Amino acid sequence: MLTHHLATCHRPNRMSIEAMTKRDFTTIQRSYTFRFYPTSAQRQQLAIEFGHGRWVWNTCLAWRSYVYRHRGQSVSAVDFSGHLTKLKKTAAYGWLKEASATTLNQKLRDQDTAFKNFFAGRAKYPRFKKRAHAQSIRYQLDPRQVAGRYRAGEFLKLPKLGLLKLKWSRKPQGIPKMVTVTQDCAGRYGVAFMCEETLQPLPREPNGIGVDLGVKDIVVTSEGWKSGNPRHLRTHTRQLTKTQRRLSRRRKGSVRWHRQRVRVAKAHARVKNTRQDWLHKLTTALIRQAGLIAMETLNVKGMMANRRLSKALGDVGMHELKRQIEYKAAWYGCEFVQVDRWAPTSKTCSVCGAVIDAMLLKVRQWSCECGAVHDRDINAARNILRLATVGRTGSDARGGVYKLEVVA
Ligand SMILES: [Zn+2]
Fold this sequence. Notes:
- The protein is α+β, with helices and mostly antiparallel strands.
- The chain folds into two domains: 3-25 and 203-230 and 275-403; 30-199, no CATH class.
- The chain has eleven helices and 16 strands.
- Strands 9, 10, 11, 12 and 16 form a five-stranded mixed beta sheet that branches. It has a four-stranded antiparallel beta sheet with strand order 2-8-7-3. Strands 4-5-6 form a three-stranded antiparallel beta sheet.
- Helix 3 runs antiparallel to helix 4 (101-119) and helix 6 packs antiparallel against helix 7 (255-289).
- The structure holds zinc ion (ZN).
């Protein structure tokens, strides 16, 4: 039975095409993270910074929860900083001066942000910090002194720590305003910051591509480009499962358990890093290919139903993929359109629009009654592109490449 189905979908408005033709420079916040290797003196100082920061966070959190519960008043963490200054002058709490003032104050400001997010419904109620968690502190860099403290790719100096031995894996552009120092559960140290950067939009490709998500290839485009599904991701995931299984056999709290816990944390980090690395390369490659990218919507329930797909990259990975495409598209002046994922994109012929009844997942190639022979994934990607661009002037997605109307 043949039916024509693909004509129904939401119409992207023409405004977005016109917006695309304006080629402004965009200012973005790019985040950088680098590993670093502290000296033993720095490690000691960092333990103090983390510990005191935790104390300030927890004490302030307990205080404001108490005041709220017993007096019904909301106090801010900034109110607490007045107390903190007084405490530092007492004999009993003089040790607070061992930590740098900027990290402690920043902890208080961060707690205010955490409460703001909680009241806005964006986050859960702030929690007490424990020593077993990943640790972090933040330093505000004074713009007047930053020249002596930071030079991209060369050095970073922080109060009470001095020069940090950073592994500069790339050279940031711009100047950071805030630096976060972290220690993960595996005991590794890192530095993270954001830099403001001005981007020149990429020369806009006049074409659009549809993107189909899958298992054999994570991404297949309507132009026949296939990303593959890197084996190393699977290997790392297998290693992670193995270390986790071993951890569950250890007696909780024992020396061997702790040692294994570090191994699990390291394996986690390795999976995350390789996946992130691969995703960044993939999404950048996609953005460079087209002026418009069309993709299916991801929905959590749908992903759960499609176990194979979510297992291929992990639920987080799929959402991360979409997130990266979305923000990179915005950065580089490329348009990103999403289409309903329940449209029968695999079963529809992208040449004549006929919909076939059913198709097994193992069918990789099929031919339509109209004579077209399809690669399953490329055909699906073409349909996604068509759904995203139907009704637009200049669209010619069926069997071909969609051309954007370029307004001079
Ligand atoms: Zn056909």
